[in-house]
Amino acid sequence: MSQQTDPPPERALSALPSVTARAVAFLGVLLGGLAGGLIGHSLVDIQCTGDCSTPTALGLVLGSVVAALGMAVVGVLALRAMGEWREIQDRERAGHGP
After folding, report:
1. Measured in whole angstroms, how far is the alpha carbon of residue 13 from the centre of its chain?
2. Residue 14, SS3?
3. Cα(first)–Cα(last) distance of the chain, in Å?
4. 41 inside domain
5. What pLDDT digit, counting tens, does each position of 19-49 carry?
6. In-domain check, residue 11
7. Is residue 4 in some structural domain?
């Protein structure tokens, strides 16, 4: 009786980026938020005189949120582009062409 070997299962195509790519994008969002918060705090702190705790806190929060949202958009676009490039490479390897 001969042993029949099954071909290896094909990798399921997925546009989901690697865990490393998603972690780098998340880290980018966090760093962008931190930078935006520092910029927002500094802008208000430079312009304000007297008791400025509330305005500087608002500048910090608003700067953080705006910068983090901007970095999130950039991250999503970059991750989608990576998924599309991987899909194109998979098609070319399979011999189906563009």
Report:
1. 21
2. coil
3. 44
4. yes
5. 999 999 999 999 999 999 999 999 999 999 9
6. no
7. no
